[in-house]
Amino acid sequence: MTLHRAVGCDTDGCIALYVAAPQLGADAALYAAQRAGWEVRAGGLATRCPCCARGGLPVLERGECPVCSGSTFATAEGDRCHHCGHVLPAPPGWDEDADEDQTHTTAR
Questions:
Q1: CA 55 to the chain's CA centroid
Q2: What is the pLDDT of residues 44-90, one digit of tens each?
């Protein structure tokens, strides 16, 4: 089992989590979180996710976002995080309309 370092948001009620690459140490994980938009103060003793750092609502629901672990929704550009706004690019050739069920027909 591979261990990962993680950075959590210190805002009350926020469950944001930045999971760093497994090979990173504690200082490198904090630096990677900072590069992803996290606010790290006092040498890592205080951390806030990108959403809380800009005064937004805290992350209340976990999902697939690699920056804050928040929930995402599908857009034409890819999956966008509800909380921090990060976009996971859509895979090449992905068509938003192709995901919809095309088998509905109207009986006459």
A1: 17
A2: 789 999 999 999 889 999 999 999 999 999 988 899 999 999 998 87
Partners of 17 in beta bridges = 8
Provide the whole-model pTM.
0.75
Q: What letter represents residue 95's amino acid?
A: D
Tallying the residues shown for the chain, one arrives at: 108
In this structure, are residues 58 and 51 in contact, taking their beta carbons and an 8 Å threshold?
yes
Which residues neighbour 52 within 8 Å (Cβ) at sequence distance 6 or greater? Answer: 9, 11, 14, 16, 39, 58
Nearest to 64 by CA among 89, 40, 34: 89
**Where do the H-state alpha helices sit in the chain?**
26-35, 50-53
Distance CA(35)–CA(21), nearest Å, equals 13
